[in-house]
Specification:
Helix content: 40-55%
CATH superfamily of the largest domain: GAF domain
CATH topology of the largest domain: Beta-Lactamase
Number of domains: 2
Radius of gyration: 24 Å
Number of strands: 11
Number of helices: 13
Structural class: alpha+beta
Shape: globular
Strand content: 15-25%
CATH architecture of the largest domain: 2-Layer Sandwich
C-alpha cells in the first residue's frame, strides 16, 4: 500500500488513524513550505520522527540534558562528516558515549516535538511507503534521529499535540486580555493590581475550560475520526483513563483510549468486541440514552472490560453515550483509576458530547450526499 496526497486534502489525524488502525509499517514523508518531516511507523506505532522545522538537533538535546559533553558531541560531528548517512545518535551510541535508554528518553521527547510542529503545518505533499524502512536517500534531512525500541501511540501524540496548542492559545489570550485591560499603566502598577485581582478569581472548572477550547474545533471537523479524537482529548482533561466504544446493533467495538497502563493499549482496545446483550448494565445505558455516574455493576461484559483495563475493579465510573440520528452510536467509559480520586463535575463534557453527536450526524449526512452525487454522475 502506497498512500500519497496533500495535507490540505487529508488531515494528519486521518492519516495517522489509517496507519495506526491498520498497524502499518513503513516510512511517512512530508514536504511542505515549512520544511521536510520523516516519520517511521512499525506495527502502527511511531518509532522515529525528524524534521528540519526544529532549531535544535538530537545532539543538541543530549548536550542540553547533560547526557554528553560538548567535546564528545564535536567528536561525533567529525565522524559524521565522514559518514553523513549515519545518524549522530547512532555514532554517539557506537562510541559508547551514551546509553540506549538515554537515547530513547531524548528521542521520545523529540518525536513529540516533531508531531506537535507538524500539526501546525498548513500545506505539504505526503507519501507513505508500506514496509519500506530503508531511509537512505529518501529525504534531504541532515540527520534521521534515533529509533525507539518501543513505539509511541499516534493517537496519544495527536491528543497531546492538540492539548499543547490549546494551552498555548489560552496563554496568548490571557496575556492579550491583560495587556488590553492594563491600558498602558506603569509596569509596577499593572503587576500589583493584576496579581491581586487574579488571586481573588476562583479557578475555572476543568470541564468548562476544555469546553471553551475545543467547541470551536468541533464546529469544523474534517472527519468522524477527528470527532472521536476530540472526545478523547476532552475526557483526558478530566479523567485519568478512558475507553471509547463504537456501538452496533449487538456489539461494542473499541475505538480508542487514553491513560491505560497496559502494553499495546491502542491495539488491544481496537481488538476488543463486547456483546451488549450479555450486559444488563450497558444495555440499560444504550436504551435510556442517559449518562451514568456511580458504581460499576458486575456482569459478564463489565468483567471483560475490567480485565482489559488491567484487572482491578473500578470504584466509580462515568459513562457517556454519544447519540446521533436518534440512537447511541458510541459510548465513552471513564474513571480515575488508580488514584481513586472522586469524579468531579462533568456537565461541560456532557454538553460537548451532545455537540459531538450533532457533528457526527452532519458528517454522516455529508457522506451520504457525496455518495448520491457520485451515483448520479456514474449514472
Amino acid at each position: 500500500m502506497s498512500l500519497a496526497g496533500r495535507l490540505e486534502d487529508l488531515a494528519l489525524a486521518d492519516i495517522f488513524q489509517i496507519l495506526s488502525v491498520g498497524r502499518k509499517t513503513g516510512t511517512f514523508i512530508v514536504n511542505g513550505s515549512k520544511g521536510t518531516a520523516l516519520i517511521v511507523f512499525k506495527n502502527g506505532m511511531i518509532v522515529r520522527a525528524e524534521t528540519d522545522d526544529l532549531d535544535s538537533s538530537i545532539g543538541d538535546n543530549l548536550l542540553e540534558a547533560g547526557m554528553i559533553k560538548e567535546t564528545v558531541l564535536n567528536l561525533a560531528l567529525e565522524v559524521k562528516k565522514k559518514l553523513p548517512a549515519t545518524p549522530i545518535a547512532e555514532i554517539l551510541f557506537d562510541l559508547g558515549a551514551v546509553k540506549a535508554e538515554h537515547l530513547d528518553k531524548i528521542a521520545r521527547k523529540r518525536i513529540e516535538r516533531v508531531i506537535y510542529r507538524l500539526l501546525l503545518w498548513e500545506d505539504g505533499d505526503f507519501q507513505f511507503e508500506l514496509d519500506d524502512l530503508d531511509l537512505g536517500g529518501k529525504t534531504s534531512l541532515a540527520d534521521l534521529g534515533w529509533e525507539l525500541g518501543k513505539g509511541l501511540s499516534p493517537e496519544y501524540l495527536l491528543m497531546e499535540g492538540a492539548r499543547v496548542q490549546d494551552e498555548s492559545a489560552q496563554t496568548f489570550t490571557q496575556t492579550e486580555e491583560f495587556t488590553l485591560a492594563d491600558g498602558g499603566a506603569d509596569e509596577g502598577e499593572a503587576d500589583s493590581g493584576w496579581d491581586a485581582d487574579w488571586e481573588m478569581q476562583p479557578s475555572e472548572r476543568k470541564d468548562i475550560t476544555a469546553l471553551k477550547s475545543l467547541t470551536h474545533e468541533l464546529r469544523f471537523p474534517n472527519s468522524a475520526s477527528e470527532i472521536t479524537l476530540l472526545i478523547l482529548r476532552f475526557a483526558s482533561d478530566i479523567f485519568h483513563r478512558g475507553v471509547l466504544f463504537m456501538i452496533g446493533k449487538t456489539e461494542m467495538v473499541g475505538l480508542g483510549q487514553f491513560g491505560l497502563e497496559i502494553d499495546q493499549a491502542d491495539a488491544k482496545v481496537r481488538a476488543t468486541v463486547l456483546h451488549i446483550e450479555r450486559s444488563p448494565f450497558f444495555k440499560r445505558i444504550v436504551t435510556e440514552q442517559m449518562a451514568y455516574r456511580g458504581s460499576f455493576e458486575k456482569d459478564e461484559v463489565t468483567g471483560q472490560l475490567t480485565a482489559l483495563l488491567g484487572g482491578q475493579w473500578p470504584k466509580d465510573v462515568a459513562i457517556f453515550p454519544v447519540i446521533a440520528e436518534g440512537r447511541v452510536v458510541a459510548i465513552l467509559f471513564c474513571d480515575n483509576h488508580p488514584t481513586g480520586e472522586a469524579i468531579g463535575e462533568t456537565e461541560g463534557l456532557e454538553i460537548f458530547i451532545n455537540h459531538a453527536g450533532l457533528a457526527l450526524e452532519k458528517s454522516l449526512l455529508q457522506r451520504r450526499l457525496q455518495e448520491m452525487e457520485l451515483k448520479r454522475e456514474g449514472g
